[in-house]
Amino acid sequence: VRLVGSEMCIRDRVKGNLRKVFLKAQKDIVYAESFFSSKVYKKFPKFKRLANEPLGKYLFNNPLISKKETYVAKYSLGNNKYLGRKCIYDLDGESFFVVEVFLFHE
């Protein structure tokens, strides 16, 4: 994971932190953004200190976190086509989201 940025912002009238990362293999293969409100941080403080740690380490191993919705989209840039998804998660009654764009194409 390569951290691109982390900043406080407001999304849908909710104050929180927007984290931007690239997931890497030999090259960047996924661009991801995650948004955590201050209420989510209070329930799971580790999200505030992820730095270059993979978020999936916690998403898939914490019984208090569940996926509620998934949206899929197609993107084009020049002749290249990409897939992306947005997942809405619940952490003990508080929502947060993760957006991923898969940077490989056919």
3D architecture notes:
The protein has 106 residues and is mainly β. The chain has 2 helices and 6 strands, in the order βββααβββ. The chain has helices at 38-43, 56-59, and strands at 2-11, 14-24, 28-37, 65-77, 80-91, 94-102. It has a 6-stranded antiparallel β-sheet. β1 (2-11) and β2 (14-24) form a beta hairpin. The longest helix has 6 residues, at 38-43.
What are the salient characteristics of this protein?
6 strands, six-stranded antiparallel β-sheet, mainly beta
Return the structural class: mainly beta
Strand order across the largest sheet? 1-2-3-6-5-4
Report the sheet-strand fraction: over 45%
The overall pLDDT, averaged over residues, is 88
How would you spell out the order of helices and strands?
EEEHHEEE
Instruction: Measure the end-to-end span.
Output: 23 Å
Number of helical segments?
2
Q: Segments where pLDDT lies below 50 for 5+ residues?
A: none
Rg over CA atoms, rounded to whole Å, is: 14 Å
- Helical percent range? under 10%
Largest sheet: 6 strands, antiparallel
Instruction: Let me know the number of strands.
Output: 6
Shape: globular
